[in-house]
Amino acid sequence: MTGAAQQADNDSVRQLLQELADHPAIGGLAADIERAFRLIAASLERGGTLYLTGNGGSLSDALHISGELLKSFALPRPLPPGLAERLGVTTDGAALAAHLQAGLRAHALGVNPALSSAVANDIALPGIGPAQELVALARPGDVLLTISTSGRSRSVLYAATVARALEVPVIALTGAADSPLAERADLALRAPARETHLIQELHLAIYHRLCLLLEAHFYGERV
Fold first, then answer.
1. I need a surface site. Which of 122, 135, 202, 221 has the fewest CB within 10 A?
2. What is the pLDDT of residues 96-151, one digit of tens each?
C-alpha cells in the first residue's frame, strides 16, 4: 500500500469512527468496536483469517459478515496488479481479471454439511462441530468472532474455549446481560438490549460498522 493510499485509508477510518461515536444506538460501544476492528485488521495484515461462528440467526449473521468481507461491500476492490496481469494472459483470464474483486479472509464455521453430519455421527459431545473445525483450520494469530444473543450457546462456548487454547483471540457479540461467552472472550461487544430480536438488530449495526472499517482500512477512500 502506497503512502498516499495509507493516508486515504486513515482519513476513511477516521470518518467512520466519528460516525460510529455519534451513532444513537451503538455509539457507547465505539471504543470496543474500534478495538475489535484493530485486532481483526492486524490479523489480516499478517495473513491471518477471521473465523465466525453462531447458531440460528447468529449463524446467518456469521455468513452475512463473511459475504461482506469476501468481496466488495461499499468500496471498489481491484485485484492486486500482479494477479490481474497473470490472469490476463490465460484463457478466460481477461474477463476474470476485469470482474473479480479482492477480498478479506473470512470463514464461517459450521456450514459444511458433510463435516457437520460426520461430527454428529462420530463424536458423542453435542455442539462440538465448530470447535472441531477450528482445531483443523485455525492458527495462532487468526481471530474468532463469536455471535450469541444469550452468550450461552454451547457450540459457541466450545469454539471460544478451543480458540483460546490455540492462541486465537476471541471477540464476542452478545447482549447486555453477563454471560459465559463474555467471560471467555478477549473482547466482548455487548449490544445494549436484552430481547433477542433487539440484540440481533444491534448486532447488524455493529458488524456492518466493523466491515466498513475493515474495507476502508484495506481499500482506501469511501465512495
1. 122
2. 999 999 999 999 999 999 999 999 999 999 999 999 999 999 999 999 999 999 99
Please count the helices (runs of H) and the strands (runs of E) in the chain: 10, 5
C-alpha cell at 147: 455471535
Closest alpha carbon to 172 in 154, 196, 189: 189
Considering only CA atoms, which of 155, 164, 157, 163 is closest in space to residue 128? 155
Per-residue burial over 119-131, b = 16 or more CB atoms within 10 Å of its CB, e = otherwise: beeeeeeebbbbb
pTM: predicted TM-score of the whole model, two decimal places: 0.93
Sort 162 into a burial class: Cβ within 10 Å, 0-12 / 13-18 / 19+: buried
Whether the Cβ atoms of residue 33 and residue 175 lie closer than 8 Å to each other: no
DSSP secondary-structure letter at 138? -
